[in-house]
Design brief:
Elements lengths: L14 H19 L10 H20 L3 H32 L5 H33 L1 H4 L2 H21 L9
Length: 173
């Protein structure tokens, strides 16, 4: 004789778990469908804002940030990210300059500059973790680079899937 199985749910769902589940669902659903336009299209600024919103949601979920921590963390982290982007642009400029018909002495000087800039970039990343740790603690601050890398991988996978999908077909649900 077969007995009926009943699924029992917890009496009170944990609000934190509900919020995390909703953010994860929103991230996954929206992440796959948010990239219909090509870069440079009129909606590219809107797309950048959507990606930033997804990034914030992903970080908040992964770091388990409270509302108070989030209001302290994001202004500091955004300033750090801006500094790192500016620094990386300087590195790319030096790398691009090396290929432009320089003699060996000039290339050697440019390589020394590149080495110095890359070492400064490493130091900047460690300082970023130190700054974040003042707000969220070392255990979570140490995860920031991994979380950023994971987020970028998810975005790239979503973009690749979007490009592989025929344009006239609707996405499967």
């Amino acid at each position: 004789m077969k007995t009926k199985r009943s699924l029992s749910l917890p009496a009170q769902p944990n609000l934190s778990m509900v919020v995390k589940s909703a953010l994860t669902c929103a991230f996954l659903c929206h992440g796959f469908f948010a990239f219909g336009q090509r870069p440079g299209a009129p909606d590219s600024e809107d797309k950048a804002e959507k990606i930033q919103a997804l990034r914030i949601a992903y970080f908040v979920e992964q770091l388990d940030l409270t509302a108070e921590e989030s209001t302290q963390f994001w202004p500091v982290w955004n300033a750090i990210e801006d500094d790192l982007k500016t620094h990386m642009k300087g590195i790319r400029d030096v790398e691009d300059g090396i290929t432009q018909g320089l003699d060996d002495n000039q290339i050697q000087r440019e390589l020394e500059t590149l080495k110095r800039l890359q070492l400064e970039g490493i130091e900047m990343r460690f300082e970023a973790v130190e700054e974040a740790a003042k707000i969220i603690g070392y255990a979570r601050a140490a995860q920031l680079q991994r979380i950023e890398r994971d987020f970028r991988s998810r975005i790239m996978r979503a973009r690749m899937q979007q490009e592989q999908r025929p344009m006239n077909r609707r996405p499967r649900r």
